[in-house]
Amino acid sequence: MMNLFRLLGDMTHLLCIVVLLLKIRTRKSCAGISLKTQELYVIVFLTRYLDLFTMYNSLYQIVMKLVFVGTSIGIVWYMRYHKVVKQTYSKNEDTFRHYFLILPCFVLALFVHLDFTVVEVLWSFSLYLEAVAILPQLVLLQRSRNIDTLTGDYVFLLGVYRVLYLLNWVYRFFMEIHQIRWIPWVSGFIQTALYADFFYYYIKSWKNREKLKLPA
């Protein structure tokens, strides 16, 4: 069911995608963006939205799911195959072995899920994977000496989107379902915690009008 926190979360998610596409399309650059994080997001959205083929909730949800899947695939395509954009990819700094995150998340989903069906296991897997998908991006930013404004704004908005979705679950606990769904709660807390350090330095750089730089 829609509430203000979920709506704001969706709009913030859309905004961070617009910021990233603006950087890629207008500047013809993906410098500072982790391809590995973007590939993990493709897996996250493809496994989470399998219910597109089995369940109808609303036109809004269908459109949003298709947008998230389509844009995530499009971003990866640009970074891998666009003749100009791919040359700006920070390959030497994007060294986090992201494939090591996939198997543990899948194994966890096999044991911790709401219902032992393909859709529910993959939904749980997508939440676990999304919780840690930002790690390659954060590692890349720590190694980068030049974090441009759009890249910093993109990661910040991505973190805000996750905070708003966590507030959405808190709201639903008190106003709707009155029970804790441990999978989105725990994965949401972990994901938000991973952004905490970045939030601190982002807000500090904005307040002091300084160039964003993360400690090594």
TrEMBL record:
Cellular compartment(s): Endoplasmic reticulum membrane
One Pfam family cited in the UniProt record for this chain: ER_lumen_recept
GO terms (BP aspect): protein retention in ER lumen; protein transport; vesicle-mediated transport
Keywords assigned by UniProt, alphabetized: Endoplasmic reticulum, ER-Golgi transport, Membrane, Protein transport, Receptor, Transmembrane, Transmembrane helix, Transport
InterPro entries named among the record's database cross-references: ER_ret_rcpt (IPR000133)
MF (Gene Ontology): ER retention sequence binding
Main location: endoplasmic reticulum
One CC-aspect GO term: endoplasmic reticulum membrane
TM region(s), chain numbering: 59-78, 99-116, 122-141, 153-171, 183-203
Membrane topology: Multi-pass membrane protein
Top-level lineage group: Eukaryota
Family: Belongs to the ERD2 family.
Protein name in UniProt: ER lumen protein-retaining receptor
